[in-house]
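STRUCTURE REQUEST FORM
Protein name: Vesicle-trafficking protein SEC22c
Source organism: Lipotes vexillifer
Requested output: C-alpha coordinates
Priority: standard
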Amino acid sequence: MSMILFACVVRVRDGLPLSASTDFYHSQDFLECRRRLKTLALRLARYPGRGSAEGLDFSIHFSSSRDVACMAICSRQCPAAMAFCFLETLWWEFTASYDTTCIGLASRPYAFLEFDSVIQKVKWHFNYVSSTQMESSLEKIQEELKFQPPVVLTLEDTDVANGVMNGHPQMHLEPAPNFRMEPVTALGILSLILNIMCAALNLIRGIHLAEHSLQVAHEEIGNILAFLIPFVACIFQDPGRLVLLVGPNLMACF
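Status: completed
Returned output:
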Protein backbone atom coordinates (compact mmCIF):
# COMPACT_ATOMS: atom_id res chain seq x y z
CA MET A 1 0.00 0.00 0.00
CA SER A 2 1.18 3.54 -0.75
CA MET A 3 2.57 5.48 2.19
CA ILE A 4 1.81 8.91 0.73
CA LEU A 5 -1.90 8.95 -0.07
CA PHE A 6 -2.85 12.53 -0.80
CA ALA A 7 -1.08 15.85 -1.31
CA CYS A 8 -2.10 19.44 -1.88
CA VAL A 9 -0.58 22.90 -2.18
CA VAL A 10 -2.19 25.80 -0.31
CA ARG A 11 -1.58 29.50 0.19
CA VAL A 12 -0.48 30.12 3.77
CA ARG A 13 -2.08 33.48 4.48
CA ASP A 14 -5.66 32.34 3.86
CA GLY A 15 -5.53 28.57 3.37
CA LEU A 16 -6.69 28.81 -0.26
CA PRO A 17 -6.07 25.44 -1.98
CA LEU A 18 -3.97 26.02 -5.09
CA SER A 19 -3.63 22.45 -6.34
CA ALA A 20 -4.17 18.89 -5.14
CA SER A 21 -3.82 15.30 -6.22
CA THR A 22 -7.00 13.99 -7.81
CA ASP A 23 -6.82 10.41 -6.58
CA PHE A 24 -9.36 9.69 -3.85
CA TYR A 25 -9.85 7.12 -1.16
CA HIS A 26 -13.38 6.61 0.06
CA SER A 27 -12.88 5.13 3.50
CA GLN A 28 -14.65 7.06 6.24
CA ASP A 29 -11.43 7.55 8.21
CA PHE A 30 -9.64 8.99 5.19
CA LEU A 31 -12.49 11.36 4.37
CA GLU A 32 -12.50 12.54 7.98
CA CYS A 33 -8.75 13.14 7.73
CA ARG A 34 -9.31 15.18 4.54
CA ARG A 35 -11.83 17.33 6.38
CA ARG A 36 -9.38 18.00 9.19
CA LEU A 37 -6.65 18.80 6.68
CA LYS A 38 -8.85 21.55 5.23
CA THR A 39 -9.36 22.97 8.72
CA LEU A 40 -5.63 22.84 9.42
CA ALA A 41 -4.89 24.60 6.12
CA LEU A 42 -6.72 27.67 7.43
CA ARG A 43 -4.40 27.81 10.45
CA LEU A 44 -1.02 27.30 8.79
CA ALA A 45 0.03 30.89 9.48
CA ARG A 46 0.22 29.88 13.16
CA TYR A 47 2.67 27.08 12.50
CA PRO A 48 5.52 28.29 10.30
CA GLY A 49 7.86 25.62 8.99
CA ARG A 50 7.10 21.95 9.47
CA GLY A 51 4.47 20.16 11.47
CA SER A 52 2.57 16.91 11.83
CA ALA A 53 -0.90 16.01 13.07
CA GLU A 54 -1.18 12.36 13.95
CA GLY A 55 -4.28 10.17 14.11
CA LEU A 56 -4.92 6.47 14.57
CA ASP A 57 -4.53 5.39 10.94
CA PHE A 58 -3.34 8.49 9.11
CA SER A 59 -1.04 11.43 9.67
CA ILE A 60 -1.09 14.91 8.19
CA HIS A 61 2.28 16.49 7.46
CA PHE A 62 2.82 20.04 6.26
CA SER A 63 5.79 22.15 5.28
CA SER A 64 5.51 25.87 4.55
CA SER A 65 7.86 28.57 3.39
CA ARG A 66 6.99 32.11 2.41
CA ASP A 67 3.33 32.01 1.32
CA VAL A 68 3.22 28.45 -0.02
CA ALA A 69 2.64 25.30 1.99
CA CYS A 70 2.54 21.68 0.89
CA MET A 71 0.43 19.22 2.84
CA ALA A 72 0.11 15.45 2.68
CA ILE A 73 -1.94 12.66 4.19
CA CYS A 74 0.21 9.63 4.85
CA SER A 75 -0.25 6.27 6.47
CA ARG A 76 1.06 5.93 10.01
CA GLN A 77 3.83 3.67 8.68
CA CYS A 78 5.29 6.51 6.60
CA PRO A 79 8.49 7.86 8.22
CA ALA A 80 8.33 11.57 9.00
CA ALA A 81 11.60 12.18 7.13
CA MET A 82 10.14 10.64 3.99
CA ALA A 83 6.97 12.75 4.25
CA PHE A 84 8.88 16.01 4.72
CA CYS A 85 11.32 15.14 1.95
CA PHE A 86 8.34 14.60 -0.35
CA LEU A 87 6.79 17.92 0.71
CA GLU A 88 10.04 19.81 0.20
CA THR A 89 10.43 18.36 -3.29
CA LEU A 90 6.84 19.30 -4.07
CA TRP A 91 7.40 22.83 -2.78
CA TRP A 92 10.41 23.36 -5.03
CA GLU A 93 8.54 22.01 -8.05
CA PHE A 94 5.56 24.28 -7.44
CA THR A 95 7.52 27.49 -6.80
CA ALA A 96 9.61 26.79 -9.89
CA SER A 97 6.44 26.49 -11.98
CA TYR A 98 4.53 29.52 -10.64
CA ASP A 99 5.93 32.86 -9.56
CA THR A 100 4.97 34.80 -6.44
CA THR A 101 2.71 37.19 -8.36
CA CYS A 102 0.58 34.40 -9.84
CA ILE A 103 0.26 32.75 -6.45
CA GLY A 104 -0.68 36.00 -4.74
CA LEU A 105 -3.31 36.90 -7.35
CA ALA A 106 -5.04 33.51 -7.31
CA SER A 107 -8.66 34.09 -6.29
CA ARG A 108 -10.40 30.76 -6.85
CA PRO A 109 -9.68 27.35 -5.31
CA TYR A 110 -7.45 24.99 -7.28
CA ALA A 111 -6.36 27.67 -9.73
CA PHE A 112 -3.32 25.53 -10.60
CA LEU A 113 -5.01 22.14 -10.79
CA GLU A 114 -2.83 21.18 -13.76
CA PHE A 115 0.01 20.83 -11.25
CA ASP A 116 -1.67 17.55 -10.25
CA SER A 117 0.41 15.76 -12.89
CA VAL A 118 3.59 16.84 -11.09
CA ILE A 119 2.14 15.81 -7.72
CA GLN A 120 1.31 12.37 -9.09
CA LYS A 121 4.78 11.93 -10.52
CA VAL A 122 6.57 12.96 -7.33
CA LYS A 123 4.19 10.91 -5.16
CA TRP A 124 4.68 7.80 -7.26
CA HIS A 125 8.44 8.29 -7.15
CA PHE A 126 8.50 8.44 -3.35
CA ASN A 127 6.07 5.54 -2.96
CA TYR A 128 7.68 3.06 -5.32
CA VAL A 129 11.18 4.14 -6.31
CA SER A 130 14.31 4.04 -4.20
CA SER A 131 17.43 5.82 -5.38
CA THR A 132 20.74 7.05 -4.05
CA GLN A 133 19.64 10.65 -4.50
CA MET A 134 16.48 10.04 -2.48
CA GLU A 135 18.43 8.37 0.32
CA SER A 136 20.78 11.34 0.42
CA SER A 137 17.82 13.74 0.64
CA LEU A 138 16.25 11.65 3.41
CA GLU A 139 19.44 11.77 5.45
CA LYS A 140 19.58 15.54 5.04
CA ILE A 141 15.97 15.91 6.22
CA GLN A 142 16.58 13.60 9.18
CA GLU A 143 19.46 15.78 10.33
CA GLU A 144 17.31 18.90 10.01
CA LEU A 145 14.52 17.29 12.03
CA LYS A 146 16.94 16.49 14.84
CA PHE A 147 17.97 20.13 15.21
CA GLN A 148 14.56 21.62 14.45
CA PRO A 149 11.76 19.13 15.24
CA PRO A 150 8.40 19.73 13.59
CA VAL A 151 5.40 20.99 15.51
CA VAL A 152 3.46 17.95 16.72
CA LEU A 153 -0.33 18.14 16.83
CA THR A 154 -3.14 15.64 17.09
CA LEU A 155 -5.97 15.46 14.61
CA GLU A 156 -8.26 16.62 17.39
CA ASP A 157 -6.27 19.87 17.55
CA THR A 158 -7.34 20.64 13.98
CA ASP A 159 -11.04 20.40 14.72
CA VAL A 160 -13.56 22.76 16.25
CA ALA A 161 -13.30 22.85 20.04
CA ASN A 162 -15.33 24.70 22.65
CA GLY A 163 -17.12 26.72 20.00
CA VAL A 164 -13.86 28.10 18.61
CA MET A 165 -12.68 27.40 15.08
CA ASN A 166 -9.45 28.67 13.58
CA GLY A 167 -8.94 30.85 16.65
CA HIS A 168 -12.17 32.77 16.14
CA PRO A 169 -15.42 32.33 18.04
CA GLN A 170 -18.21 30.91 15.98
CA MET A 171 -20.97 33.39 15.28
CA HIS A 172 -24.53 32.20 15.73
CA LEU A 173 -26.85 34.10 13.48
CA GLU A 174 -30.46 34.37 14.61
CA PRO A 175 -33.34 35.43 12.39
CA ALA A 176 -34.48 38.99 12.88
CA PRO A 177 -37.77 39.36 14.74
CA ASN A 178 -40.78 39.61 12.47
CA PHE A 179 -42.79 42.71 13.31
CA ARG A 180 -46.30 42.91 11.90
CA MET A 181 -48.38 46.07 11.85
CA GLU A 182 -51.84 45.87 13.35
CA PRO A 183 -54.72 46.27 10.88
CA VAL A 184 -56.23 49.73 10.64
CA THR A 185 -59.61 49.95 12.37
CA ALA A 186 -62.63 51.86 11.05
CA LEU A 187 -62.08 54.58 13.64
CA GLY A 188 -58.46 54.87 12.57
CA ILE A 189 -59.45 55.21 8.91
CA LEU A 190 -61.95 57.94 9.79
CA SER A 191 -59.35 59.77 11.87
CA LEU A 192 -56.84 59.56 9.04
CA ILE A 193 -59.33 60.85 6.47
CA LEU A 194 -60.22 63.83 8.67
CA ASN A 195 -56.53 64.60 9.24
CA ILE A 196 -55.86 64.50 5.51
CA MET A 197 -58.84 66.74 4.76
CA CYS A 198 -57.72 69.28 7.35
CA ALA A 199 -54.17 69.13 6.03
CA ALA A 200 -55.36 69.62 2.46
CA LEU A 201 -57.51 72.64 3.42
CA ASN A 202 -54.63 74.23 5.35
CA LEU A 203 -52.27 73.62 2.43
CA ILE A 204 -54.67 75.15 -0.10
CA ARG A 205 -55.20 78.24 2.09
CA GLY A 206 -51.47 78.58 2.71
CA ILE A 207 -50.67 78.38 -1.01
CA HIS A 208 -53.41 80.87 -1.83
CA LEU A 209 -51.98 83.39 0.63
CA ALA A 210 -48.42 82.73 -0.56
CA GLU A 211 -49.40 83.62 -4.13
CA HIS A 212 -50.39 87.08 -2.91
CA SER A 213 -47.46 87.48 -0.51
CA LEU A 214 -45.91 90.24 -2.63
CA GLN A 215 -49.03 92.33 -2.32
CA VAL A 216 -49.49 92.08 1.46
CA ALA A 217 -47.63 93.48 4.40
CA HIS A 218 -44.91 91.56 6.18
CA GLU A 219 -47.20 90.84 9.11
CA GLU A 220 -49.42 88.80 6.78
CA ILE A 221 -46.65 86.20 6.51
CA GLY A 222 -47.71 85.02 9.94
CA ASN A 223 -51.13 84.20 8.53
CA ILE A 224 -49.53 82.03 5.85
CA LEU A 225 -47.54 80.14 8.45
CA ALA A 226 -50.70 79.73 10.53
CA PHE A 227 -52.12 77.50 7.77
CA LEU A 228 -48.92 75.73 6.73
CA ILE A 229 -47.90 74.69 10.26
CA PRO A 230 -51.21 72.87 10.96
CA PHE A 231 -50.81 71.17 7.58
CA VAL A 232 -47.42 69.74 8.61
CA ALA A 233 -48.79 68.80 12.04
CA CYS A 234 -51.65 66.88 10.45
CA ILE A 235 -49.26 65.03 8.18
CA PHE A 236 -47.10 63.83 11.08
CA GLN A 237 -49.89 63.27 13.58
CA ASP A 238 -50.32 59.61 12.69
CA PRO A 239 -47.37 58.48 10.50
CA GLY A 240 -47.99 54.76 11.03
CA ARG A 241 -51.38 54.73 9.38
CA LEU A 242 -50.49 57.50 6.95
CA VAL A 243 -48.41 55.06 4.91
CA LEU A 244 -51.50 52.99 4.15
CA LEU A 245 -53.89 55.68 2.95
CA VAL A 246 -52.03 58.91 2.26
CA GLY A 247 -51.53 58.23 -1.45
CA PRO A 248 -55.12 57.60 -2.49
CA ASN A 249 -56.55 60.31 -0.22
CA LEU A 250 -54.16 63.00 -1.43
CA MET A 251 -55.11 62.19 -5.01
CA ALA A 252 -58.77 62.47 -4.04
CA CYS A 253 -58.25 65.83 -2.34
CA PHE A 254 -56.47 67.35 -5.33
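Reviewer notes: Residues 160-180, 240-254 have pLDDT under 50 and may be disordered. The CA atoms of residues 169 and 214 lie 69 Å apart.
Form closed.
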